[in-house]
Please model this.
Amino acid sequence: MTSIPIRRALLSVSDKTGVVDLARALASQGVELVSTGGTAKALRDAGLEVRDVADLTGFPEMMDGRVKTLHPMVHGGLLAVRDDPEHAAAMQAHGIGAIDLVVVNLYPFEATVARGADRDTVIENIDIGGPSMVRSAAKNHHYVAIVTDPADYPIVATGATTLDQRKVFAAKAFAATAAYDGAIARWFGTVDQAEQFPPVLPLTLTRGATLRYGENPHQSAAFYTATDGVRGIGQARQVQGKELSYNNLNDADAALELVAEFRDAAPTCVIVKHANPCGVATAGSLEQAYAEAFACDTVSAFGGIIAVNRPLDVATAKAITGIFTEVVVAPDADDEVLALFAAKKNLRLLLTGDLPDPARSGLFAKSIAGGWLVQGRDAGTPGELKVVTQRAPTAQELDDCRFAWTVAKHVKSNAIVYAKDRATAGIGAGQMNRLESARIAAWKARDAADKAGWAAPRTIGSAVASDAFFPFADGLLAAVEAGATAVIQPGGSIRDDEVIAAADAAGLAMVFTGMRHFRH
Model:
């Protein structure tokens, strides 16, 4: 397609990275440079000849820079349809010159909010003139190139653009202003007006990668990053391994969110399969924690996702690389560990730096037919536990109860978790009734004991956590049969008295949290 030459360019950027080089390339091809405020100064300091917008409009920048480009001499030069006789006549009559290229990036609104600036400063960082120029140029992309992404500077540095290029620029430009306005709307609604669920909830996501496929090969998929400042799997550094798949990302996120619950605890290892933990343990070393977590379910751990709450050490790395693992997530790893992992070319290693705060606020959204379900993150932790049985738990039982409860929060409902000595003994996930989850978890514990050659499953003397109340005593009795001696559950069933009586008859200690952790 025939290129349109750039004869006049308007440059006005907050982030000035690369703009001087671009301006120098344009100037070398005879392009007239027009600019504003700080951008004009940066270009002049670089020895470039620049025309002020004030010279173009005949009006000085005023009101602390709030008014400078909102003028017909600017927007007429951007919006005029060049081959429309009436538009051409209006440009001629009013001395409006065409602007062929606009390079804009906007005031740093989100960065200003993120650094905790006061309200007046936040308001002053709402860009008005910039988005107006962006939208005008993008609308008239048949004639005008609008560049909002510095990655596109080399394209326009050639001094000409094609219509196909300008279409791409326009799409990026409208996405940029939509995201910018969305961030402002979210701030006004959720922060300034203190509404968790404002009447309109703009979501701004930036595509990070196009994935090979989704959960299944016939589904297309992509990964988008949010702009909430939270660091997680999406911001982790992939040191090695194959490209991450949709399921890899989903499972790695599940593992990271669970291990983050233990970010201030002793060394902890989490093993996840299909977004459910299949083994979790806290111990005196990462190597020991991994061994204990692996022992819970050696079958499911094959091809699983492993997350740890400490930088990887050599001993743990050697143990992990002993079986097939899809992804390993860790805060960090030294060169010796990296060398060990390098021998496993397909193993993905993700280094996250710090772990996310499990108590952070935020929203969780899920699409359904005809709309979205939006809820606050499940960041709840129970307060004082209520002992409801004749026997109170021992200190060890109470510690195991809390550990099992933390893991159960991350297991799909109906969830049952047995734990002993800060290690999972058996996990029952995603069943349609709680009794089956209790039985499956106990069966898996017996299977683990058989494989390890233990005299008895680790459910003997364990604590059992249920993510929601026991609607009948049968689920609790299954836990008794498995050897559990303590129970932690939300309570709140109309049959609580029946369940408590069954616990007392079996000599169990049971505590209520008053809080459930459904996960669907």
